[in-house]
TrEMBL record:
Keyword Transmembrane appears in the UniProt entry: no
Keywords: Kinase, Transferase, Two-component regulatory system
Signal peptide per UniProt: none
UniProt xrefs under Gene3D superfamilies: 3.30.450.40, Histidine kinase-like ATPase, C-terminal domain (3.30.565.10)
Organism: Thalassospira aquimaris
Keyword Nucleotide-binding belongs to the record: no
Designated name of the protein: Histidine kinase
Length: 401
């Protein structure tokens, strides 16, 4: 079969392929009938002109697993428009391919000695390069170069179109993800607004049922000629009322968090949540040297609120004997906060308790990953990556504004 027949078959095989790797794989066999190779790749320049992506068949190398800086690519002279081709009998000794900083490891690791590369152009502009390699030394010559030119001219417009389609699809997916995230945040903000309104109502009821009732009783009992016992009883009532107000304030404004930091605030909340006659034990273990206290204020308060809710669930509903809060950070700067107990709390499978929904909403609003596990006790885990910590803060600033 003549080369022309193979070129026609290549054109037919390209039709119907919607991604670059599938298209290249479909024509691999026909290209091998025109020019023998151990490795073939199409390297396309990204739209920013600074990076290039390789799609390969034959020997699998690291080139297709990463983007390469155009200035560090072994074929940079083609991608930068300095030449329209490169031909070498031994790339292992050719400084055009092995210059300082070049991404040449695949050439060395796979002993790709003979190489012929030709620029791929669309409307006169270099969009990439078609590269053919053999492990044999001095394998390619001028006739091979002309064959690669023809193939490059055939493949360039098709692969350029596929790349544009690929980029459009990725942008559509990104837009859809952004819209979904915005909708999730909007619903989360609405849910949190409802929760805050419920919290205001709870505070109002506490003030009405507790503080106002105490003040009314004290005002009724205040009269001239109180005995010492009556005076001491009123004094104790005032002290109890002051403590009750402090409890209401502490559940509304995390002042301890601001003054003494996350570790102390969680420790204090655990001490208050667990009654004095309880056998429940607790521990707080921060292995990050106070990393949470370095978070933006909105994010830090949200993390503390999630811990409060998880601790309250453990103390009130799980019949646990141990509650623990741990803070860790991995080498990727991901903060993990885990609230665990050894109780038997079981959320309703169809209607999650509002407290769990509030924790999930708070986590979503600060860009944190939220997980709930109820095997071997209950574990509430939130993870904050550096990027999501910053994004979460911006989101909350927008909501607050």
């Amino acid at each position: 079969m003549s080369d022309l027949a193979h070129y026609l078959r290549i054109s037919n095989l390209l039709a119907g392929n919607l991604d670059i790797h599938s298209a290249l794989s479909s024509v691999k066999t026909e290209i091998e009938k025109i020019i023998e190779f151990d490795h073939l790749d199409v390297c396309l320049i990204d739209t920013d002109k600074r990076w290039a992506t390789a799609y390969e068949v034959g020997v699998e190398t690291a080139w297709s697993k990463m983007r390469s800086n155009v200035h560090r690519a072994p074929i940079r002279d083609i991608l930068l428009g300095k030449t329209d081709h490169l031909l070498t009998g031994n790339a292992l000794q050719d400084q055009r391919f092995l210059f300082p900083g070049a991404v040449s490891a695949p050439i060395i690791d796979h002993e790709l000695r003979s190489r012929v590369s030709v620029g791929m152009k669309v409307l006169g502009e270099v969009v990439g390069s078609l590269n053919c390699s053999s492990k044999k030394e001095d394998f390619y010559n001028q006739s091979h170069l002309e064959q690669i030119r023809i193939l490059a001219d055939m493949l360039a417009p098709y692969f350029y179109a596929l790349r544009a389609n690929e980029k459009a699809n990725k942008e559509a997916i990104i837009r859809a993800e952004i819209l979904a995230r915005e909708e999730g945040l909007r619903l989360g903000a609405l849910s949190l607004t409802d929760a805050l309104e419920a919290e205001r109502q709870r505070i109002g009821m506490d003030l009405h049922d507790q503080t106002l009732a105490d003040l009314t009783r004290i005002a009724r009992d205040l009269r001239p000629g109180l005995s010492e016992a009556q005076y001491l009883r009123l004094q104790q009532q005032v002290q109890n009322m002051i403590q009750g107000l402090r409890d209401i304030i502490d559940t509304s404004i995390p002042s301890i968090l601001d003054l003494f930091g996350f570790h102390h605030a969680v420790q204090t909340h655990l001490e208050r949540a667990i009654s004095y006659d309880s056998v429940m034990q607790f521990k707080v273990d921060d292995q990050t040297d106070g990393a949470i206290d370095l978070l933006p204020e909105t994010t830090r308060i949200a993390v503390f609120r999630i811990c409060q809710e998880a601790i309250n669930n453990a103390v009130l509903h799980s019949n646990a004997s141990l509650v623990s809060v741990s803070v860790t950070k991995n080498p990727d700067d991901c903060l993990t906060i885990k609230i665990s107990d050894n109780g038997n709390f079981q959320p309703h499978p169809r209607k999650p308790p509002s407290g769990l929904e509030h924790m999930k909403t708070r986590a979503r609003l600060i860009g944190a990953k939220y997980e709930l596990a109820t095997s071997n006790g209950t574990q509430v885990t939130i993870q904050l990556h550096q990027a999501t910590r910053q994004e979460g803060e911006k989101t909350n600033e927008n909501i607050a504004g």
